Amino acid sequence: MDFNELAKQRYAVRQYKPLKVEEEKMKKIIEAGWVIPTAKNLQPQRFLVVNDENELVKFDKVTRYHGAPLVIIVCSDRETAWRRPYDNKDTMDIDATIATTHMMMAAQDLGLGSCWITYFDPEALKKEFNIPDNLEAINILEIGYADGEAKSPDRHKEMRKPIEEIVFYNKFK
Q1: Fewer CB within 10 A of the end CB, N or C, for the chain?
Q2: Are 21 and 56 in contact, with CB atoms under 8 Å apart?
Q3: pTM exceeds 0.90, yes or no
Q4: What is the full DSSP assignment across 64-122?
Q5: Which residues lie closer than 8 Å to 131 by C-beta, 6 or more apart?
């Protein structure tokens, strides 16, 4: 499938079938987050893969959990992330975001749905999942088989700003 078609099919799934994600698919998704390019190849991304039912219930304490059978907490290691020398901007959010995007699209390609979550209580998440102090949880990625009707791939025509409002050539007006 063409990448843009895959991207248009992807939507935030908030209801999942009670089916486990197969180990082979889970490994492919994790690999997609592992192979990403990172700033200076420092690879600060860390993934906590949660697929045990006894652990999954903990998400109800920290976010709006939608019942996905596979959840990946995407973290970055503060001590490893590269900092731009001009203004000391660190790239840990950027590297984690690239990893999440790759895993999200890999899940879509494998026939799975996902929901990217940034609305969570960081301290509660850290406590519930024993996240070390050097790691910062950047986002949570829920993955599973979508339950319900898929969103239309054509929805972007109505839901997005016209492309002329977001793309500029050679300089901003």
Answers
A1: C
A2: no
A3: yes
A4: -----SEEEEEEEETTTS-B-TTT--B-HHHHHHHHHHHHHHHHHHTT-EEEEE--B-H
A5: 48, 73, 75, 125, 137
Domains and CATH numbers, the chain: 3-149 (3.40.109.10)
The CB density around residue 145, as the number of other CB atoms within 10 Å, is: 16
Q: Are 133 and 145 in contact (CB under 8 A)?
A: no
Of the candidates 17, 13, 3, the residue with the CA atom closest to the CA atom of residue 142: 13
Q: Tokens 């790239």: give the residue.
A: 91
Apex 150 CA angle, 161 and 94, nearest 5: 55
Query: How confident is the model over 57-115, as pLDDT tens digits?
Result: 999 999 999 999 999 999 999 999 999 999 999 999 999 999 999 999 999 999 999 99
